[in-house]
Each structure stands twice: as structure tokens, then as C-alpha cells.
Design a protein that fits this description.
Chain A has 237 residues and is an alpha/beta fold. Chain A has nine helices and ten strands. The chains are: A alpha/beta (237), B alpha/beta (691). The interface between A and B is medium-sized, with 25 and 28 residues.
């Protein structure tokens, strides 16, 4: 899942304090699962903003909503209409950055602000702890490294590790951070495939990663079908 | 579409009249005793009676039995009745007659009077004929006063007669007025004459002087007579009537009272607790013995000769005792009382064409409740055979439905003799292990040797504190968590937090009703707000708050506090009754929650939105919480709410978490006082920071 974390309320208040009517929109997807921006967090943020407005003597209305997933056009489709109907003049999104972007594309002249800091692609390590496990580099090498990602889990993202900064299984950047390569080696030992690491990984092409510019995935088959359906609808209409 | 009825709590299902005992307990906890009484009387007009003598199948089925001991539901019922006397008198009154049809009911016992109540409420004119001087049937004439004082029974009956029913006592149908005449005068007649005769026994010597029948003895005792039974009394029989006779005999001064019954100890048909109480009172048991002959001297009883009973029932479970004639015994006796069963007195049929089936039984259709004559119905023990009081009440309700239908349509209504409802099922073993044990509140009984001195009641009622403490033990079956699948993100938070390991997630979460303990911990933290509770959910908290906060003191001299308090720690109604003046005066608005562990962070923040200066959360006393981990979880949520306040420039100290000391009444007021003073200081500090 995409892991995010709520921004400090002081920062959020700074975004929205000059707006008369603000809609806080949560997301029922990853942001809910990582306990950062679901229905309940939306209520908490909404409540906190109302208390803050009351305290500051601001005449400000804070409304709340939560959509199934802010990264889907169909789910955010009703939002612009609501903004118009209710004269809402700013939106605070409690989705990951994807949701904020999609809303920004669709909300016309109403500004949307991020209520969360989007952190990483990760997993729940234990209740209340999430760790990064994928960097979304676009070219998986997990088959070479026992299923543990050197790009995401090594601080340097090196492909031939460990480096000299590894000691007692920890990374030199912090005693709280496991050395990704130590994890890879232990795993491959267990799998009996350690010998594969003798082979040196060649410098890789990073153009599939964010460094290559904004990425997109296209399934031509589905796109084609959707276009045809649209066309048919237009003709029958 | 799922058309099955929703599963109910086992106590409700087990009750013959389906009293919603679970809801009754909830109302006790919430201090709504009058509404609890309404609920009880709606199901059972003989609520006072059942509070004393019901055989409480609700308790037998209580799921708490598997954890420690069942809830004291019968005693709670008695508590409600005793706590609401004045209200009950006020609510009593006539109903409007809306139907021209008149109905005759023969017999003013629990079955007949229940039907009378229902039919009167349906607008019919109802006349009840009773041969005795007072209404009540067997409840009034044979149940000993130490179990059921007559004024308790009278309280129930007064409700019914107040409806505007005509009650004609000392009017024996068949003797004083013919059944045929009733059939002519009334559009429908109900025979609810019960089983008022004791069965006799055909053994040699039975005609001896000093051989008595159980019911006449009990009837005499019930009107205050003291039949001379002598020092040594043998009661033949092992049922509840035999127990009543034996215990009365002890109270009448007999020193040696023995019950001789065919059954082995564990087969005795009497309720186990009654047997125990009889033993405490010095009654002796001679089990697995059958009477062979009454011994006499000069026509006067001297004892009872017994033969060994080797089995009571045949392979099909039918009553068919067999004896070993070689093994005999004897009991010396001044009196032998026969309590071997009851029979119907069908004098009322005299001269009528209502048919009897086998000897002493009515010809009767158990589904339509009709006799052989159109318009003549029957209910209660006369048609069902011996049963408990609450079963007679249930049959009375059924008869009323059958007659109402008949008078509406001219048709007969088929009803199953007993309405079976689905229950939520047994508590699974792994859930039982996780439920905290909590001792049943027992009122105890005075010692047996003291009890036999007179006919005064042997059991006292719960005090209010005891009733509330016992109500707290309820597992609140059927009121647990449920999931809105459209909202659920399958995040597993509920699974990770559930202290009873109830929640599971496959795509979306589910909390099987038979396991859920309704603690509300999952609902408090569900990030999708997809979990709700069937009882006292977040919406209830919000409703309470908005009602209370609409009464916010106009010019409060000091801080205004919303206090979420643990409902379970109250030993009286002092803090349960909402009093707007109180809120104005004290500046404290209370929201009582069945375990504050279910409060969410939004619940804690909401009062501030609505103008509260502080939130005081008062949890139960140390170690008292029913729900494992609830205290720690609540603590973590309070910390989170405090952090939120800090982030927006308010002091986190505005939210305080208290633990009850001793009880609500003892400690809460002082907590509010401390919070109020502290808030005054915090307010000044925050002002200072801003300027």
C-alpha cells in the first residue's frame, strides 16, 4: 500500500485559514489502511479544524466527506458538483499525493491542499509501524535478491552490496535501520542461492524509475475496448 | 433475500412469553426502571409473580452460565417491580371498549387473566368467572406465602382488573351458572380452569384417617389455617407441589417430614433449587420408593409401607413405574399427604355439550385451542397439562390471539403450541476463556431452621446497588459489532485490536454475533468508521451530546465540562437522570457510556467543537473493567486526543482520564471539581500565551 502520514495540524491550518468553507475529503483506500486519511481521520481533522477556527474566532465552515478511492476518476466525479452546490471554496485532501493530484485536475478553480505527507510504498511491520519495501523503480530485480529489494531497502540502493557501512546487520545511517543487503544475504543463504551473488550486477537503466520522467502504464487492449464503447454510446445517442 | 428472523438472545428465546430480558437488563443499567417495567408487563402481566417464583428458563439458557454463573434475571425482574410501585399504580387504568362482542373467561388464574387482559386491550367486553373468593387461581390458593405473598400476586391482578374487566368471584360455572348460558350470552368463551384437584392413590389403607390430598392442605394453609398434621409427615411425590407441602408441614410444626418419591434424586421433577431449599429446611428425601400400603391402627394412619421403585419410565420415556416387591421399607407417620399429580375439575362442563376426551381431559385442538363446541376455547393447564406460571401466561396470550381472530373472521387460527425463535447460539469455548469472570450477586436466604418458624418470605430483593452490579454481568448478547461492508477497507485494525479474537477479515471484516462481547473497542478505532455497535454506538453518544450541549450554561461562572462516564460504576440513578438544571448549576454535562473504552478520538474532540472547555473521562475502578485491554486502549486514545489539542494550540490537559474510586456516587463529583479548578488555570494560561 501507499503509506502516508498526517501533516501537523498547524501546517494544515496555515493552508486553509483564509477560506470560508472547506471540505475535508478522506480516502477509503490506502490512506484508510495506514490510518492516516480514512473516515475516522477525516472526522478527527475536521473536528480539530473546527475547534481551531472556534478558538481563533474565525467564521469558517469545515465539512467532511470520504470517497472510496481518490485515485479513481469515477469516485471523485461527484466532488466538483458538491463544491459548486455548497459554495465550498477549498478542499483538503487526506489521500496520498495521487488523490490530491487527481482532485487538482478536476476541481476547476477550487484549490486542493494536501492533508497528508505521502511517504512510501510499504507494509505493516506491526500494528502502528509501516516500513518501506518498494521504491517503484519500474524494473524489478527481486528475483535476483531473494525477494528483498536492494533499491528500496538499501539506503544507497546499490545493486552489489553490502557496502562498508553495514555493521551487525544495521545500516550506518541509523541503528534502527536494517542493512538491506544483510537481509538479502541471510535470505539467500536460507534459500541456498547465495552463490548467485557472485555474479556482479551490471549498472542498470534507471529510465524506468522516476528519474526517467513521469511514467504511465498502458493496456492497449482495454483502452481500445473503452474507446469503442464510447464511440458506440455516441452513435446511439 | 434472507427472510430468516434475526437471531435473538437465548434468554428471550427460552422465555415462554419471550420477555426481552436482555433489553430489560440494559434498561436497568441505564436507570430506566419504569421503561423496564413497561417492557416486562407488555410480555407478561404476571411480572410480580414471576419475579418471585418463575422457574426462570431465561437463566437456564443464559450464556454467562458457561463463564461462571447465569445472570440473576428473576431477581432483576423483582427489583424492577419493587423499584416502580408508584409508577405502576399511575400507569394503571381502564381501556376503551371498542368492540361490541363480549367474551366469557372461566377461571381467574394466570392463563385466564392474561387472555382477559389481551382481549380487553383489544377492545372486547370481558367477564371473568371465578369460583374462589379471590382471583389468582393456583397462584393465590396453593403457592405458599413464603414463596409468593398474596399482595404480590394482587399487584399483577390489579393491573388487569383496572382495565375494566368484570370479575365475578364466587361464581362457579357449572354450579352457579351454566356453561350453556355463557355460550348464549357471550360471543366466545374461554375455559381456563387449571388443574385444581389432587390425584388420589389406590393402595390399601388409603381411606385411613390422616391421609390427605396436597391441594386441600395447601389451600387451607394459604388462607391462614393450620391443619393439624402431627409431628411426623410423609409426603408422597417428588414434584413442586410435594415440596410445597413438605415445606409447609415443617412450618406447621412437623418435626419429621419425609418426601417419598418414585424417582431417584436426580430424576425428581421438582426444581432443583426447591429441593435444595427443602433440604435446608430439614425435609428428608426417600427417593426411589413407591407406596405399597398405608399402615393404620384403628383407622388412624401410623405409617406408610414402601417398595423399591427400580425404574419410573419405560424405554419410550412414558411414566410406567416398576417395582422390586422384595425390597420394602416403612416410614412412621401421623399424616400422609398425597402429592402425586393434579387433575382438572370439569364441573364447569356440567349440562353443556363440550366433550371430554379421556377421563378428566377436554377434547381439545392444541393448534386452534378450541374445544368440541364452536366458540368455546380452552387454555392453560386444563388443556396443556401441568406447567409453570409463565407457561400459563404464554398460553393465555395465545388463546387471546386465537379468540380475537375468531371474532374478527369467524375462522379458527392455527398457532404452534410454542413459537420457536432462532438464537445467536452458544458461546464458543475460546471466547469463554477470554471473558472475565465476575461473581453472581446473591442475596442469600435466611437459614433453614429460621425459615421454618413462620410463613414469611425466605428471600429478599436486590438493593439498587446489587441490581446494578448484577446487571453489569450481562454479556449483552446480540448487541455487538457489525460491519458496513461498503465502507470496510479490510485493514485488519479490528482483528488486531479485538481482545476476544472475534473479528476476522476476508475481503471485509466480520464479527460473528455469537462471539462478539460488544466491548466496542473495534468500533472506536476503525479507520473507515465501518464498524458500529447495535447498542450505544457513536450516534447515541452524539445524540446525547447535542441534547446536553443545547443546554450549555448561558453564563457559566466556571468551566463547562463534558464528562463521559462508565455507566457500570453507578450504584444508583443519581447520575443517570438527566437534569438540565443540574447542568446549568454544576457546569457538567454527563454522558454515561457502557464502558468508556468504546470512546473514539472524535468522541473526545466533539465536545470542544460545541463549546465545552474540558472533557472528563471517568473509567471504572481499577481492575473492574469487563473487557481485557480496554483500559490501555482508552489510555492511548486519550493521549492521541490530547496531542490533537496541543497541535491546535490548546492544552492537552483539557482532557482528563479518571478512574472511579469505590463508586460513582463516592468519587465522581470530586473529579469534576478538580477538573473545573484545573480548567480555570488552563484557560488563563492559554489567554496569556495568546497575548
Amino acid at each position: 500500500m501507499i503509506v502516508a502520514e498526517r501533516k501537523p495540524l498547524g501546517e494544515i491550518i496555515g493552508f486553509i485559514e483564509d477560506f470560508r468553507k472547506v471540505l475535508v475529503i478522506g480516502c477509503g483506500g490506502c490512506a484508510t489502511v495506514c490510518l492516516a486519511g480514512g473516515e475516522t481521520e477525516t472526522k478527527i481533522v475536521g473536528s480539530a479544524l473546527r475547534i481551531a477556527a472556534r478558538k481563533a474566532g474565525r467564521q469558517q465552515q469545515i465539512l467532511e466527506d470520504c470517497v472510496t478511492r481518490q485515485c479513481e476518476p469515477e469516485f471523485v466525479e461527484p466532488v466538483p458538483g458538491r463544491l459548486g452546490d455548497e459554495n465550498i471554496d477549498a478542499v483538503l485532501s487526506l489521500a496520498c499525493g495521487v488523490g490530491v493530484n487527481l482532485l487538482a485536475e478536476r476541481l476547476g478553480d477550487v484549490p486542493v491542499f494536501p492533508g497528508l505527507n505521502t511517504k512510501f510504498l510499504g507494509a505493516t511491520a506491526e500494528p502502528g509501524v509501516w516500513v518501506e519495501m518498494c521504491a517503484g523503480c519500474g524494473n524489478c530485480v527481486l528475483h535476483l535478491t531473494g525477494g528483498i529489494c536492494p533499491v528500496a531497502r538499501c539506503s544507497k540502493s546499490i545493486l552489489n552490496g553490502p557496502c562498508g557501512g553495514s555493521s551487525d546487520g544495521k545500516c550506518e545511517i541509523s541503528p534502527d535501520v536494517d542493512c538491506g543487503w544483510e537481509l538479502i544475504i541471510r535470505r539467500m543463504e536460507r534459500l541456498g542461492t547465495l552463490d548467485r551473488l557472485v555474479e556482479i550486477a551490471e549498472p542498470r537503466d534507471w529510465s524506468s524509475s522516476p528519474h526517467g520522467g513521469p511514467r504511465r502504464v498502458v493496456r492497449e487492449d482495454l483502452r481500445q475496448l473503452a474507446a469503442e464503447a464510447e464511440e458506440e454510446k455516441a452513435t446511439t445517442a | 433475500m434472507d427472510t430468516r428472523a434475526a437471531p435473538e438472545a437465548p434468554c428471550l428465546v427460552a422465555c415462554p412469553v419471550h420477555t426481552d430480558t436482555r433489553l430489560m437488563v440494559e434498561r436497568v443499567l441505564e436507570g430506566r426502571y419504569e421503561e423496564a417495567l413497561d417492557l416486562l408487563l407488555e410480555a407478561n402481566p404476571f411480572t410480580s409473580v414471576c419475579g418471585r417464583i418463575c422457574h426462570h428458563p431465561c437463566e437456564e439458557s443464559c450464556r454467562r452460565s458457561k463463564v461462571d454463573a447465569p445472570l440473576g434475571l428473576r431477581q432483576l425482574k423483582r427489583f424492577i417491580v419493587e423499584a416502580t410501585h408508584e409508577y405502576r399504580v399511575r400507569r394503571r387504568g381502564p381501556v376503551r371498549r371498542t368492540r361490541k362482542e363480549r367474551i366469557a373467561i372461566v377461571g381467574a388464574g394466570p392463563a385466564g387473566l392474561t387472555a382477559a387482559q389481551d382481549l380487553a386491550r383489544a377492545g372486547f367486553g370481558v367477564t371473568v368467572f371465578e369460583s374462589a373468593t379471590e382471583p389468582g387461581g393456583m397462584l393465590g390458593t396453593t403457592i405458599p406465602r413464603y414463596r409468593l405473598p398474596y399482595d404480590v400476586l394482587r399487584e399483577d391482578i390489579d393491573d388487569i382488573t383496572a382495565l375494566g374487566i368484570e370479575l365475578r368471584t364466587q361464581c362457579a360455572v357449572g354450579t352457579d351458572i351454566a356453561l350453556a348460558e355463557l355460550q348464549r350470552e357471550f360471543r366466545a368463551t374461554l375455559l381456563a380452569t387449571g388443574l385444581s384437584e389432587s390425584r388420589a392413590l389406590g393402595v390399601p389403607g388409603i381411606d385411613s384417617h390422616g391421609v390427605l390430598l396436597a391441594l386441600p392442605v395447601l389451600r387451607a394453609v394459604s388462607v391462614g389455617e393450620r391443619p393439624p398434621l402431627g409431628q411426623r409427615v410423609v409426603v408422597v411425590g417428588g414434584g413442586n407441589v410435594a415440596i410445597d407441602v413438605a415445606r409447609c408441614a415443617r412450618r406447621l410444626g412437623a418435626t419429621e417430614v419425609t418426601m417419598a418419591c418414585l424417582e431417584a434424586r436426580e430424576e425428581m421433577p421438582a426444581w432443583e433449587w426447591e429441593v435444595e431449599e427443602a433440604l435446608e429446611e430439614g425435609v428428608k428425601l426417600a427417593t426411589s420408593w413407591g407406596p405399597r400400603a398405608v399402615l393404620s391402627d384403628d383407622g388412624r394412619v401410623t405409617g406408610l409401607e414402601l417398595r423399591r421403585c427400580v425404574s419410573v419410565f419405560d424405554d419410550d420415556g412414558n411414566f410406567s413405574p416398576s417395582f422390586d416387591e422384595d425390597e420394602t421399607s416403612g416410614l412412621a407417620a401421623d399424616t400422609v399427604v398425597l402429592a402425586i399429580g393434579q387433575a382438572a375439575d370439569l364441573t364447569c362442563l356440567k349440562g353443556s355439550s363440550v366433550k371430554t376426551a379421556t377421563a378428566g381431559r377436554l377434547e381439545y385442538d392444541p393448534e386452534t385451542m378450541t374445544t368440541s363446541e364452536r366458540g368455546v376455547f380452552a387454555c392453560g393447564e386444563v388443556s396443556t397439562g401441568p406447567g409453570a406460571a409463565v407457561e400459563a401466561v404464554a398460553d393465555g396470550h395465545r388463546a387471546a390471539r386465537a379468540m380475537h381472530h375468531f371474532l374478527d373472521t369467524g375462522e379458527l387460527l392455527k398457532q404452534a403450541p410454542r413459537e420457536e425463535l432462532p438464537t445467536i447460539g452458544d458461546l464458543p469455548e475460546e471466547t469463554i476463556e477470554r471473558i472475565k469472570q465476575r461473581a453472581r450477586v446473591e442475596v442469600g436466604r435466611s437459614p433453614g431452621e429460621e425459615r421454618v418458624r413462620d410463613f414469611s418470605e425466605i428471600e429478599r430483593a436486590f438493593t439498587e446497588g446489587e441490581a446494578r452490579a448484577e446487571a453489569r454481568r450481562c454479556l449483552a448478547c446480540t448487541t455487538g459489532a457489525f460491519v458496513d461492508e461498503d465502507r470496510c477497507a479490510g485493514c485488519l485494525t479490528c482483528v488486531r485490536i479485538c481482545p476476544f479474537e472475534v473479528a476476522t477479515v476476508t475481503k471485509t471484516a466480520s464479527m460473528p454475533e455469537e462471539k462478539c462481547q460488544a466491548c466496542g473497542l473495534c468500533a472506536a478505532v476503525c479507520p473507515a468508521a465501518a464498524v458500529a455497535l447495535k447498542r450505544f454506538g457513536a450516534e447515541r453518544i452524539q445524540e446525547d451530546l447535542s441534547r446536553l450541549l443545547s443546554e450549555r450554561p448561558k453564563a457559566s461562572p466556571s468551566a463547562f465540562i463534558v464528562s463521559y462516564c462508565c455507566l457500570f460504576e453507578t450504584t444508583s440513578r443519581k447520575f443517570l437522570e438527566e437534569n438540565p438544571e443540574d447542568v446549568q448549576r454544576t457546569g457538567v454535562a454527563r454522558v454515561l457510556v457502557p464502558c468508556v473504552g468504546r470512546l473514539s478520538v472524535p468522541d473526545m474532540l466533539l465536545p470542544f467543537e460545541q463549546g465545552a472547555d474540558g472533557v472528563s473521562i471517568i473509567a471504572c475502578a481499577d481492575g473492574e473493567c469487563l473487557y481485557p485491554t480496554a483500559e490501555e486502549r482508552l489510555g492511548a486514545r486519550v493521549e492521541e486526543a490530547k496531542r490533537i489539542l496541543e497541535e491546535i494550540g490548546l492544552s492537552g490537559e483539557r482532557i482528563e482520564l479518571w478512574r472511579t474510586r469505590e463508586s460513582a456516587e463516592v468519587s465522581w463529583t470530586s473529579f469534576w471539581e478538580i477538573s473545573r479548578r484545573k480548567l480555570a488555570g488552563i484557560g488563563a494560561e492559554e489567554q496569556g500565551e495568546e497575548t
